[in-house]
Design brief:
With 329 residues, the chain is α/β, with parallel strands linked by helices. The protein contains 13 helices and 12 strands. Helix 2 runs parallel beside helix 6.
């Protein structure tokens, strides 16, 4: 049997979909399992165990629905038996239809359900990992009891126990740390943990924001800006060799959690019951939790402009949690 899975389009969702891939391998141990993934995220697919072939997809190379159709038709010669669609987009459904798999499985979404052969109802108010796996359960009629989000990466010979990674970025304004609050937190951390170095991570587009955070900060001799200086594979290696990651609700939070790095997630607008990193070991979720609007799950703060739920986070709680992972705390 040949199975093709269209992975989601965001880093955090791709990491969470690793549990779906593992479940597919569990139910179809002899099957060849391939994936389609956004080209920019393709290096992460190499860390997902059990995959045979990774097909990178670029919107720039295959623009619009006609481009998506051409990409799908090109894979038609592979003669896939099953196609699982995880993104909530019409384009991914068109892609699956063009591929021509015997069975095309997905949730009823985006008005393109007629392009699927097997359509199922998306469960409400569950974690994203459980949402993905429910698609497989509904299709097969079998329950998946073991659920883990694990990426495979070579463990370093030695972990730098005094190196802390920081990510204050997010795709959504309501999940990104406000500049003044970011400065307050990094000053609190560098003053409390005098033996630690702090490395900011992020994409090239986020480097300028990190520069603004570091500008005028205290103890800058122990702060570095690595935003845009690593690819996703390099970031994974940096994470697995560091003491911990302090991060907003974002893709790097899921990546660190999946490779076993202690992860402290600062939540604002997001709902941790749906989108927090899945593995509970060495995971701490911190939120203010005293505003009636939390969590609003909106991408921008409609009520305050700047997300107050992030501004009011308790620095002492962050310090106390991080101290669990630093030897000289």
């Amino acid at each position: 049997m040949k199975i093709l899975i269209r992975l989601p389009n965001w880093l955090g969702d791709v990491v969470m979909s690793a549990a779906f891939v593992a479940s597919v391998k569990q139910l179809y141990p002899e099957a060849i399992v391939d994936v389609i993934i956004k080209k920019e995220l393709s290096s992460i697919a190499s860390l997902i165990p059990g995959l045979h072939t990774v097909h990178p997809f670029s919107k720039q190379e295959y623009s619009g629905l006609s481009g998506v159709y051409r990409f799908g038709k090109a894979l038609g010669s592979e003669k896939y038996d099953l196609f699982f669609n995880l993104p909530s987009s019409l384009s991914s459904l068109v892609m699956g239809w063009a591929i021509g798999a015997k069975k095309r499985v997905g949730f009823a979404k985006e008005g393109g359900f007629f392009l699927l052969t097997n359509v199922y109802k998306k469960p409400l108010s569950v974690h994203r990992v459980d949402e993905y796996i429910s698609l497989l359960e509904q299709f097969t009629g079998k329950q998946i009891s073991e659920r883990h989000v694990n990426l495979i990466i070579n463990k370093p010979a030695q972990v730098n126990k005094d190196r802390v990674l920081i990510n204050f970025n997010s795709e959504a304004d309501s999940r990104r740390m406000p500049l003044d609050k970011a400065k307050t937190i990094i000053n609190s951390l560098t003053n409390r943990f005098v033996n630690a170095t702090f490395i900011f991570v992020g994409s090239p587009q986020e480097s300028a924001f990190v520069d603004r955070v570091i500008d005028g900060a205290e103890n800058t001799d122990r702060i570095e800006n690595f935003a845009g200086k690593t690819d996703l594979a390099g970031l994974s290696n940096l994470m697995v060799s560091s003491a911990a990651l302090v991060t907003t609700d974002s893709g790097p939070a899921h990546l660190a959690n999946s490779v076993g790095t202690p992860t402290i997630v600062l939540f604002g607008a997001g709902n941790e019951h749906n989108t927090a990193p899945y593995n509970k070991q060495n995971l701490t979720v911190i939120r203010y939790g005293k505003l009636s609007c939390e969590p609003c799950v909106k991408n921008t703060c409609k009520l305050y402009g700047i997300p107050k739920c992030m501004q009011l986070l308790d620095e002492l709680q962050i310090i106390n949690t991080l101290s669990l992972y630093l030897p000289h705390a």
